[in-house]
Amino acid sequence: MLDDDALIMRRVQAGDLERFAELIRRYQRPLFRAALERLGERTWAEDVVQETFLAAFAGRTSYDPTFSFRTWLWTILLNLCKRHWKRRASRPTQHPWSELVAGDEIRLPEPATEATGLTCLLRAEQIERIRELLTELPEDQADALRLRFFGDLTFPEIAAAMNCCLNTAKSRVRYGLDRIARAMQRDEGDLS
User: What are phi and psi of 116, to 5 degrees?
Assistant: First the structure.
């Protein structure tokens, strides 16, 4: 990174407001991926990410540079996602598989060989199933998984963002992964 996040925020706090754009460029994409996975609707995710940056900018004077900016920002995102979700009475519409394959949403790693149409379809179905399974998990486990894998946060950052201890953050990720793995194994068993 060109500058440490805390250093950029100190400069923003000192009046160099244009520097905040660096933080937006740095975090917009991972925040969007996590919000999309949490909310399930592209426009909702875009709105929440925009609100996250607006809230961080508005609260710039309250930011304490001795703490991680990244954790502070992810905490804002999680809180706004929860608030946004509660405002929505119905569950979001799931994206069709073609959008998952073509869009910039989460993708599984590309295989070493050239992907065939069938491979892309199967991968898209796996992604869709993982999305469904995330919605079936307890909210704390699903959010911990989103932060870990879509936000690329470390366990200490997850603990800080979710206001829990380190072991709780690790447990939420582990139990969430276990539940998803068992469900995927059941799905494979049903097919055979």
Answer: -95, 170
pLDDT in tens, 103-151: 444 444 444 444 556 666 666 677 777 778 888 899 999 989 888 888 8
Out of 5-9, 115-119, 162-166, least confident range: 115-119
State whether 51 and 123 are in the same domain. no
The one-letter code for the residue type at 60 is R
Question: How many domains is the chain partitioned into structurally?
Answer: 2
Shared-domain flag, residues 70 and 16: yes
Q: Among 74, 89, 104, which residue terminates a domain?
A: 89
Q: Taking CA 52 as the corner, what is the angle to CA 137 and CA 10, rounded to the nearest 5 degrees?
A: 125
Same-domain pairing of 5 and 85: yes
Name the one residue in this structure whose structure tokens are 């993708």.
Answer: 107
Q: pLDDT > 70: what percent of the chain? A: 78
Alpha helices in the chain (DSSP H): 5-13, 20-39, 42-58, 69-87, 97-102, 117-136, 139-145, 155-162, 166-191
Structural domain includes residue 8:
yes
